[in-house]
Specification:
It is a single chain. By secondary structure, the protein is mostly helical. The protein is built from 14 helices and no strands. The longest helix has 34 residues. The model has no long low-confidence stretch (mean pLDDT 87).
């Protein structure tokens, strides 16, 4: 039972956190409010609190968004990105999950050395190996294809490590019981291991989605067809166009930002649980 003093301190902490969060949210609020305005209105409101207040709701309220969605291919870019993210989430969970399970539960030669290599790969920046990926995909003739984009991104050392850390703690008794029911290792992985590891599955899914959604360099190297481009490349193309107004620029940035905010809002608990659980495992 909290005392009155403890309750008072908690309320003060909550108030302080709300004030601090507002400071961090100011750029987002400003972006959202001005994405509905004309360039003239944005300029007039720039030095006042009106910059954080959207205009009155009228017939032209959504003009910037309507222009972006109807006069550009941005919807196509967003659908492409969501599709790539969905494919990579499924394949990433399967491939990285199986690799993590092997490192956690299966004895094979040089197991510890493979784990060390994976941990070392975690600190290698993507930019240092992206040339190798590009040359590999080019040699296979997979440039400007979905397979060429997806293939190098399936395996992720960090995700393998996350899965491994969680799978280490799974009780062996469950697998022994599954064997009595003639459950093979692959079936056991999909029907028992993954359902028991929902937090890390959610964490890997969110990280994969964010990586795909925010990635600009790799798709810009692989894709040349406008039909295959991603949201970030579309954002750059639209905002760099001289005919795009400031309001339309803010509108398209808002469209790119909203999915990230929604994902964090919905899965923040799972992300924290997944990261904390991986850091608390031994072995």
């Amino acid at each position: 039972m909290l005392t009155k003093k403890q309750k008072r301190i908690n309320w003060i902490l909550v108030a302080v956190m709300i004030v601090l969060s507002l400071f961090f949210l100011f750029p987002v609020i400003w972006m959202l409010a001005n994405s509905f305005k004309t360039d003239a209105a944005i300029t007039n409101d720039m030095n006042s609190m009106a910059a954080f207040i959207p205009p009155a709701l009228n017939g032209s309220f959504f003009d910037n968004y309507i222009t972006i969605l109807t006069n550009t291919n941005f919807i196509r870019y967003m659908v492409n990105t969501l599709f790539y993210a969905a494919v990579l989430i499924v394949l990433g969970i399967i491939v990285n999950g199986l690799a993590g399970y092997a490192l956690a539960k299966i004895n094979f030669p040089f197991k510890e050395r493979w784990l060390m290599i994976i941990m070392l790969l975690m600190i290698v920046p993507m930019e240092t190996i992206i040339t190798i990926h590009f040359l590999f995909i080019a040699k296979l003739g997979l440039l400007n294809t979905i397979i060429g984009y997806v293939l190098p991104m399936i395996v992720n050392p960090f995700n393998i490590f996350l899965f491994r850390q969680v799978f280490v703690s799974l009780p062996d008794d469950v697998y022994e019981a599954a064997q009595l029911d003639y459950c093979n290792p692959i079936k056991y992985f999909f029907t028992m291991v993954l359902p028991m590891s929902k937090s890390v599955v959610a964490t890997v899914s969110v990280f994969t989605f964010l990586n795909v959604w925010n990635d600009y360099l790799w798709p810009s190297l692989v894709f040349t067809s406008s039909d295959l481009l991603t949201a970030q490349i579309g954002l750059n193309a639209i905002t760099s166009n001289e005919n795009t107004t400031m309001g339309q620029t803010l509108a398209v940035i808002t469209l790119v930002t909203i999915p990230v905010i929604i994902i964090y809002a919905l899965f923040s608990k799972q992300i924290v649980e997944g990261v904390v659980s991986t850091g608390s495992k031994e072995g």
